[in-house]
Amino acid sequence: MSEAPARRRTGKPYRRPQRDPVRILAFEALRAVDERDAYANLVLPPLLRKADLDRRDAALATELVYGTLRRQGTYDAVIAACVDRPLREVDPPVLDVLALGAHQLLGTRIPSHAAVSATVELARVVLGDGRAKFVNAVLRRIAAQDLDAWLEQVAPPYDEDAEAHLAVVHSHPRWIVSALWDALGGGRAGIEELLAADNERPEVTLVARPGRSTPADIAGSLPPEATAPGRWSPYAVRLAEGGDPAAVDAVRDGAAGVQDEGSQLVAAALAAAPLDGPDRLWLDGCAGPGGKAALLAALAAQRDAVLVASEKQPHRARLVARALSGNPGPYQVIVADGTRPAWADGAFDRVLVDVPCTGLGALRRRPEARWRRRAEDVPGFAPLQRGLLQQALRAVRVGGVVGYATCSPHPAETRAVVEDALRDAKAEWIDVRPLMPGVADLGDGPDVQLWPHLHGTDAMYLALLRRTA
Q: pLDDT > 70: what percent of the chain?
């Protein structure tokens, strides 16, 4: 027997739940992330296009998805304190609805009554009336305190267990807190600033590809309040909050692209490294999806040099070819495995390997990655990272330059890989710091680690090596 007639017998007419397209979209995005291991930055745009929301509602849906994913660890701890069973025994769709409600209650300015009411309506639509009652009861418990009060209750005291405290307060797995703290060094202030920066929405940064556009061209094509200069890269333009890259003519034409400023600095530093002898042939050995390759190809063209962009995966190689289309000088895109190279030893003057890694440096952009990665994933990347760097050092000629880059600050993925390679190869360090002019807080060198809280970039790492024999 259905619930509706039973309710009518009690004198309460059945009211159909109200469908809120914003919250339904946010729920669908979270389910895709959970069920299919999808990434929010890939799932959300097509959902937004299909829903055809106005700008304000699209912004709210985006905030609900990313805010919930970033603060998932904190919200799980709060929800666990409000239910009478372990979280693993709560159905994942119910947890997603509860997390969406918790974010509205604890992480936004939405009034509590509105947050509870809207989330319960969502639960009625996507879970049914029975489970919506459970959602309502839990959310009312959560609404009884603000975030600071909840953190005081659910986070271990810092003095008793600093890493566990930071993990709950800043919503990172404990092993990532430990790894980032090791990489950063120093005391409490620095790690708290870094973890907090990981939970901030990153700016949208464009790169003006040399020979095709300039930052002034991009800024001049938009209202003055819509852009700001890059902090460090001479090719960067920052869009104002809510700015849409697809609305920029240069992006649509391929004369500019969306690229974090840290990635721009890596490519520019490799191109600026001092070189003895010819400078005619460059290699991007891990080119997909093509952002660094497009900037390198443009810089190479200004010197009558040619970039070979190599990518192992054919579908990613197609993305590289699309990014390089229209480059002012010659280039070549090939499908090849950098650990089993299709080129002769000593063939290139400059080589970049931006190696696969855990991605811990891009947690602002891909917050769900922090919940998918495990500490045991780190050593799993090591053989590939070392193999790519060793082959890069063979691919460059004597006197040529290799750049080893990765979007991770984990010590096992950065300097440890380079130091291992230097034990087996005839090469020397190049100090990266002078090749990033004006960039502050670059450490003691010779390699460079960028940080979200210090530089406003992803946590990109770069080491430059010159082959000596």
A: 97
